[in-house]
Design brief:
By secondary structure, the chain is of the alpha/beta class. 51% of the residues lie in helices and 14% in strands. One of its GO terms (molecular function) is oxidoreductase activity.
Length: 263
């Protein structure tokens, strides 16, 4: 086992779980963070089944609560864990017209996708900059590049993550820091996202890529210190479309993906 530790949020399933597998494969100690202990235990069982002897630490924390990032940081500090890699994967969305969705749901999306991500980045990045070593992976989305009717708040949070990450990347270069930050912008992926967002029957949900493929491309980009990862041709196509088409057209295309059920 190497002597490095990776902390992954949203680690009980989907891209977060597959990222944890990547770290375990390379002999990292992995700190798995998600809301439900039982789901974390099952994730750990699967990882141990594949990679024997890996040190796995389970921390059930709910990132929709404002105090959680500071509590999580305090817990890892109390345990004497130096977090060498932070993967901010936790996030969720909701589907429907903004005027119809419960406001608390939207505020929870902002708390998890934006506020907790920024707070955790602040806490662990300071330590990394002081050591002049470390890596951070921020999980964005192809929704980072265009407005998305019927997922208005979710897409806006991912646009924030993109802008925030690219700004901090520039700051790290100005400081001549060895710390790197990578943003992963996957296309629709086969995870629990669409079920949680009540979008199981949309066209987007029926044209997904595997979480493992997304995580492995993101992991490779993180290890190489690449600024941005666009896994699969689908993500690259969406990104270049966002450069060529006006926002009004992009919004119409995204709206179609979230309303039309594939036959």
């Amino acid at each position: 086992m190497n002597d490095q530790t990776a902390l992954i949020t949203g680690a009980s399933s989907g891209i977060g779980f597959e990222l944890a597998r990547c770290f375990a494969r390379d002999d990292y100690r992995v700190v798995l963070v998600a809301r439900h202990l039982e789901e974390l235990q099952e994730a750990a069982r699967l990882i141990h089944q594949e990679f024997e002897g890996i040190d796995i630490i389970l921390l059930p924390f709910d990132l929709s609560l404002p105090e959680t990032p500071r509590q999580l940081y305090a817990e890892t500090s109390k345990r004497g864990l130096q977090i060498d890699v932070l993967a901010n994967d936790a996030g969720f969305g909701e589907t429907g017209y903004f005027s119809d969705i419960d406001i608390q749901t939207e505020l929870n999306i902002i708390q998890v996708n934006v506020t907790s991500l920024v707070h955790l980045t602040k806490l662990y990045l300071r330590d990394m900059v002081e050591r002049n070593s470390g890596r951070i992976l921020q999980v964005g989305s192809i929704a980072s590049f265009s407005p998305s009717p019927c997922q208005a708040v979710y897409a806006a949070t991912k646009a924030f993550v993109l802008s925030f990450t690219e700004a901090v990347q520039h700051e790290l270069k100005q400081k001549k820091s060895s710390v790197t930050m990578t943003i992963l912008c996957p296309p629709p992926t086969d995870t629990n996202f669409f079920r949680t967002a009540h979008a199981e029957n949309t066209r987007a949900a029926n044209h997904t890529v595997s979480a493992r493929a997304v995580a492995e491309e993101g992991y490779d980009a993180l290890m190489e210190g690449t600024a941005r990862s666009l896994p699969t041709l689908n993500a690259k196509f969406n990104f270049f479309s966002s450069l060529l088409l006006p926002d009004s057209v992009l919004a119409t295309l995204m709206n179609t993906q979230l309303h039309a059920t594939s036959k």
